[in-house]
Design the sequence.
């Protein structure tokens, strides 16, 4: 089984959400606790996480663990180790499992990176975003380009197997030259993995308020140009709309989510998918803590799709993958639809050997939107 | 039965806001037709839209009993008339049911063009006119000046003009006395076979079709079998009655009386306004002279945004037509908009009202195409065809010439604005006719203007350029040959019928330019470059390009939150449902509505 996507569809993953951030970035709408402005009961939260993991249903050993956030790197090494231990104890890890953490550069030194390796992490995703200090400032980030470089070098030196650099492009005020410089810097660090996201204005964020108030928002054409410039320069393999990797270094956890695989989820506002049911946890910290400390699973809601909806979901998720997705019933319906034919005529969608492929990843949502509206062909 | 000599049937002719509805309220109140506690403003304007717009679009009648100073009680039937240019045909119908009219003028405003036009109409119909000056309570009132204008129109002397305040009630009794003493009683043969004129009809959800009647000869009794002479329908008079102003059934209506008739008829369109009702057993030999069909002046396509609503639109139009016989429509197919109706209206206001009622009362979502007048195309083989829609204009190869309807426009304006008015008319390809000074301060101007030039925003322009002081009225004139072309709008090379328009050759470029610029802004970017072109025949006169969209993807899957991403996409897709596919191009409904809006 060489195709990592096919493999991921049958794998089990665990997601753990750590909501704490030194400060909330203006564009961010994740479940975040702003440590500068809100009370941040970190130790209590870790206790709750460990308890919540303990309450999970039995499962076979998992293939991937991801600590996301927020900023998991604000936790102490011992706290991180406790969380991983709880997971190992509850489910176990398969041999060679991916154990990943999202980190901000300002938290990563040779020492802390060594601690992560000792605790069991073999993958790190660094929230570098840009190598232009002006852009970093407008993104509200706390690190500078030098720290970003040093954190990457430290992570590699500590022996973390896969290092990912996270970038954001198309921040208002970011020039083309600035972006190219960011790309050159990132590529120069020769990591195994790179993610690049177009800055998006999410509702309810400081950024969206600023844009509504007349500040310039991201320009889609500029973002398209920058995406294409990156795709041109990078030598890693593209395997998803926003992700590039050395073959074999693809993120297993992420692949599981796109391949409609299963993942259990713990922590504030975390989303899981087990046994065909999607779950979401409470997003308010006090409620979350209250539930767990009262011995209850902090699940706020669940969703179970009917078989056709599920089939469409498979297609819409799989279309993000650069090797495409097995066409199946939903794919057949898409090819048959007016919209589907329009996409094929425009050269955006390709059918090949029973698979469907979005040939220009910049139009993934256009195709996904139509896919979700399909009705079964009778 | 009421002694015909004690009946007075009359209308009020007034310009909008000169106080007709208020005066009607006062008359009802004074005669006790409405208890004080039931009194609400503008009783006669029953429909929501009328109240909101402050205009009356349906003729309503009300029966008032007035004990006069001569000791007798008189029955006064007030037949309300609409007050807008678009509805002058309804005015003439209402006048047909009357022997007299009050010519009501605001003491602070003076006579307006429409009032004058309707007054002329009443005089032609042989109606007795009582000039009335209203709003004498206003500090800015100039009753003497306005009286002089009125006398100039209807003759007579100062004493013949009644001065009232519909607001305070001053002069109301004097007016009631004048109605009784100066207006003639109805004539007609009380003993002859029944002949009653249907001067209006409307559809009531509970009662079916309700006809407004003026009995001319004989009488009509509760329960009798009546025959509608034009349609040859025989029906039982299930209920007859009068409006006081609430409906109240009576046993009989006799010559000279005005009231309503309800039969078993529920189907729309079976009753024709202008028809004569007679007795089915002892019928009259000849019907009363009916009305000419009102002539639609403006045409526009109405299309449901949701194609499945076509049948509902048809039903709604059928229902509306019952209350509005001036509305005409026939099915039309547009490549861009699907199935709909080409509708004829009396004017733009009428068009707006119909559309608003369809949307509001029948819960329909509609797109209206650019309004057009009715052109005549003369072909090289000598034949002529009517052109109500730009698509109907024949190809240039077979087209000899095109003529367009002109109207006779009358404008009344303070003399200081004569120059401004002339300039406006000239821009609209108008030709000057007669000019008369009503008084040294007020001028009556006559013009011939292409209907297409005035039907859209002329009225608003006139108002704004004369600070609201000028007023206008128009009546159909002759057809004249003009240099007209069709400007086609092409989206991605495909002509979009809904956007094409027939315009004067000299305006073609401006129209084309404005249209392509608007569309470029209104149509969202597509997967490919979309040229937007304006063309006359095969010649492109304006072009813009909607650049292809470059990016339609958002970054993350929100840490495993698939549900949220899916819902977001589903919501966005829902928003796209209101798009019409034109060729390969997705055009939002909003683009049709905004692009066709006439304001500039
Ligand atoms: N001061 C004053 N205002 C009046 C008088 N008659 C009517 N109005 C006001 O003039 C406006 C238009 O009156 P309305 O009866 O609706 O006019 P219509 O459009 O002719 O039906 C309303 O605001 C009335 O209150 C009057 O005698 N004196
Ligand atoms: S560090 Fe990341 S999770 Fe925290 S506020 Fe910024 S973007 Fe959001
Ligand atoms: Mg009124």
Sequence:
């Amino acid at each position: 089984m060489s195709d990592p996507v096919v493999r991921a569809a049958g794998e089990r993953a665990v997601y753990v959400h750590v909501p704490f951030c030194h400060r909330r970035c203006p564009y961010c709408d994740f479940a975040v606790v702003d440590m500068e402005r809100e009370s941040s009961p970190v130790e209590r939260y870790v206790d709750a996480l460990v308890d919540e993991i303990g309450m999970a249903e039995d499962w076979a050993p998992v293939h991937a663990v991801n600590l996301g956030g927020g900023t998991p790197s604000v936790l102490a090494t011992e706290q991180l180790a406790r969380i991983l231990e709880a997971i190992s104890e509850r489910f176990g890890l398969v041999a060679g499992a991916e154990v990943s953490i999202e980190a901000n550069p300002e938290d990563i030194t040779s020492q802390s990176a060594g601690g992560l390796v000792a605790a069991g992490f073999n993958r790190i995703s660094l929230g570098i975003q840009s190598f232009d200090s002006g852009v970093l400032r407008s993104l509200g980030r706390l690190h500078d380009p030098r720290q970003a470089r040093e954190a990457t070098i430290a992570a590699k030196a500590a022996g973390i197997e896969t290092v990912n650099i996270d970038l954001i492009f198309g921040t208002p005020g970011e020039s083309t030259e600035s972006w190219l410089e960011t790309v050159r810097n990132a590529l120069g660090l020769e990591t195994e993995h790179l993610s690049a996201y177009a800055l998006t204005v999410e509702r309810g964020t400081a950024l969206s308020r600023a844009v509504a108030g007349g500040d310039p928002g991201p320009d889609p054409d500029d973002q398209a140009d920058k995406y294409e410039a990156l795709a041109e320069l990078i030598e890693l393999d593209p395997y998803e709309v926003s992700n590039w990797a050395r073959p074999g270094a693809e993120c297993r956890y992420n692949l599981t989510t796109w391949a409609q695989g299963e993942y259990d989820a713990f922590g504030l506002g975390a989303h899981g998918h087990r046994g065909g049911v999607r779950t979401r946890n409470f997003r308010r910290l006090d409620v979350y803590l209250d539930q767990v400390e009262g011995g209850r699973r902090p699940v706020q809601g669940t969703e179970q799709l009917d078989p056709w909806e599920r089939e469409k979901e498979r297609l819409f998720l799989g279309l993000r993958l650069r090797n495409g997705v097995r066409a199946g019933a939903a794919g057949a319906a898409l090819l048959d639809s007016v919209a589907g034919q329009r996409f094929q005529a425009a050269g955006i969608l390709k059918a090949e050997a029973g698979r469907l492929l979005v040939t220009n990843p910049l139009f993934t949502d256009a195709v996904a939107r139509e896919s979700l509206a399909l009705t079964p062909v009778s | 039965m009421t002694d015909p000599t004690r009946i007075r049937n009359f209308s009020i002719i007034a310009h909008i806001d000169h106080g007709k509805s208020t005066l009607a309220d006062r008359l009802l109140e004074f005669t006790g037709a409405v208890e004080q506690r039931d009194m609400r403003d503008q009783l006669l304007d029953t429909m929501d839209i009328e109240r909101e717009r402050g205009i009356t679009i349906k003729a309503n009648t009300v029966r008032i009993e007035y004990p006069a100073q001569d000791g007798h009680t008189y029955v006064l039937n007030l037949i309300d008339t609409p007050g807008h240019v678009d509805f002058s045909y309804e005015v003439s119908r209402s006048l047909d049911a009357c022997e007299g009219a009050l010519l009501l003028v605001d003491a602070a405003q003076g006579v307006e063009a429409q009032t004058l036009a309707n007054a002329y109409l009443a005089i032609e119909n042989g109606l007795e006119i009582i000039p009335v000056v209203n709003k004498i309570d206003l500090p800015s009132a100039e009753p003497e000046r306005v009286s002089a204008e009125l006398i100039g129109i209807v003759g007579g002397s100062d004493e013949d003009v009644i001065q009232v305040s519909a607001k305070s009630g001053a002069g109301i009794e004097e007016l009631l006395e004048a109605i009784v003493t100066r207006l003639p009683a109805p004539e007609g043969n009380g003993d002859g076979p029944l002949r009653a004129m249907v001067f209006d009809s409307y559809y009531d959800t509970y009662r079916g079709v309700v006809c407004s009647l003026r009995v001319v000869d004989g009488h009509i009794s509760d329960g009798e079998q009546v025959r509608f002479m034009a349609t040859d329908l025989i029906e039982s008079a299930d209920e007859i009655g009068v409006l006081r102003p609430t409906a109240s059934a009576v046993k009989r209506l006799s010559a000279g009386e005005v009231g309503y008739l309800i039969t078993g008829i529920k189907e729309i369109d079976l009753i024709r306004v202008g028809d004569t009702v007679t007795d089915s057993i002892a019928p009259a030999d000849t019907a009363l002279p009916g009305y000419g069909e009102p002539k639609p002046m403006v045409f526009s396509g109405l299309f449901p945004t949701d194609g499945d609503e076509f049948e509902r639109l048809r039903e709604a139009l059928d229902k509306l037509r019952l209350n509005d016989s001036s509305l005409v429509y026939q099915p039309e197919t547009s490549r861009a908009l699907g199935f709909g109706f080409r509708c004829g209206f009396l004017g733009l206001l009428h068009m707006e009202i119909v559309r608003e009622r369809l949307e509001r009362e029948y819960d329909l979502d509609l797109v209206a195409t650019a309004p057009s007048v009715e052109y005549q195309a003369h072909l090289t083989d000598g034949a002529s065809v009517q052109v109500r829609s730009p698509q109907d204009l024949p190809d240039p190869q077979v087209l000899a010439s095109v003529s367009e309807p002109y109207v006779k426009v009358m404008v009344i304006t303070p003399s200081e604005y004569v120059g401004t008015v002339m300039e406006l008319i000239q821009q609209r390809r108008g030709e000057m006719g007669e000019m008369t000074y009503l008084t040294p301060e007020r001028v009556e101007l006559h013009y011939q203007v292409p209907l297409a030039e005035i039907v859209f925003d002329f009225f608003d322009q006139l108002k704004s350029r004369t600070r609201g002081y000028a007023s206008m009225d128009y009546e159909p004139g002759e057809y004249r040959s003009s240099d007209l072309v069709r400007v086609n709008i092409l989206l991605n090379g495909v002509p979009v019928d809904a956007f094409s328009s027939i315009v004067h050759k000299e305006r073609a470029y401006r129209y084309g330019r404005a249209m392509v610029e608007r569309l470029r802004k209104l149509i969202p970017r597509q997967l490919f470059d979309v040229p937007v072109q304006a063309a006359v025949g095969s010649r492109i006169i304006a072009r813009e390009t909607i650049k292809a969209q470059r990016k339609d993807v958002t970054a993350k899957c929100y840490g495993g939150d698939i549900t949220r991403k899916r819902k977001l996409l589903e919501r966005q897709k829902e928003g796209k449902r209101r798009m019409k596919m034109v060729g390969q191009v997705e055009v939002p409904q909003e683009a049709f509505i905004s692009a066709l809006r006439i304001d500039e």
In short: Chain A has a mean pLDDT of 95. Residues A 21, 24-25, 28, 30, 32, 69-71, 104, 127 surround iron/sulfur cluster (ligand 2) (CB under 6 Å).
